[in-house]
Amino acid sequence: MSATDAQPMVSLRGVDKHFGDLHVLRDIDLDVAAREVVVVVGPSGSGKSTLCRSINRLETIDAGEIRVDGELLPEEGAALARLRAEVGMVFQSFNLFAHRTILDNVSLAPLKVRGAKKADARREAMQLLDRVGIADKANSHPAQLSGGQQQRAAIARALAMHPKVMLFDEPTSALDPEMVGEVLDVMTSLAKEGMTMIVVTHEMGFARRAADRVVFMDRGQIVEQAPPAEFFDSPRSERAQTFLASVL
Ligand code: ADP
Ligand code: MG
């Protein structure tokens, strides 16, 4: 392996975060390799969303270091905007612009932040919509789409920035059950194409199928991590055993 292959795409060292008296991230060390798919699981309130938001610098951390592709997270300004582009984020709520078409939603940020040409941005947006299976919705507005279609549009929008890593924070939690599969399918194909992904989810079937590694968090700590078969079949900690008993 060359030196660049060995460099993690995302690296956290000694990361600490408080909200007032609440210690939500406790000395987190985590490396995610390029092309790796890490699924983060754990009870509600364990710090999973804060972890994701810190990697995108939607939250500041109190101590420690976070690097993306070797670079420390910038504090602000143009460098921060560039980082946000490199770290795609998909939330539980889709956060699409309601008054714009789906095509606009996917092509706006490349135009503004990446300085893409309009025709190029729209052509690529169409390709991305095709890839997530909603090319026929390009000229619709978000409210005209189902939840699953909106979330697929949100994934296309993040991909339009050519991210180095994609963060997903419970992307299917707000969806009706019949729409969960179509979003997980898009995520599974992204994973197969080699996207580096950090996925917070309660979809344990997806974790088993798509994860290279499962990271279990509880009370702000990474309690254990293992390949999915090992984690699900023989969790080591009592906390993970209790958690799995409650969700499986
Ligand atoms: P998870 O995603 O695992 O459910 P979160 O990262 O959302 O956990 O939250 C971790 C803890 O931090 C929870 O106790 C939550 O209530 C608290 N928390 C999250 N965001 C804030 C905030 N902006 N202000 C205060 N407390 C927060
Ligand atoms: Mg959360």
Automatic annotation (TrEMBL):
Organism the protein comes from: Microbacterium candidum
Top-level lineage group: Bacteria
Lineage: Bacteria, Bacillati, Actinomycetota, Actinomycetes, Micrococcales
Family affiliation: Belongs to the ABC transporter superfamily.
Entry protein name: Amino acid ABC transporter ATP-binding protein
This protein's record includes keyword Membrane: yes
Domain ABC transporter: 10-244
Listed InterPro entries: AAA+_ATPase, ABC_ATPase_HisP-typ, ABC_transporter-like_ATP-bd, ABC_transporter-like_CS, MetN_ABC_transporter-like, P-loop_NTPase
Any matching Pfam family: ABC_tran
Its membrane topology: Peripheral membrane protein
Entry keyword set: Amino-acid transport, ATP-binding, Cell membrane, Membrane, Nucleotide-binding, Transport
A GO molecular function held by the record: ATP binding
Broad class of the protein's primary localization: membrane
Location in or out of the cell: Cell membrane
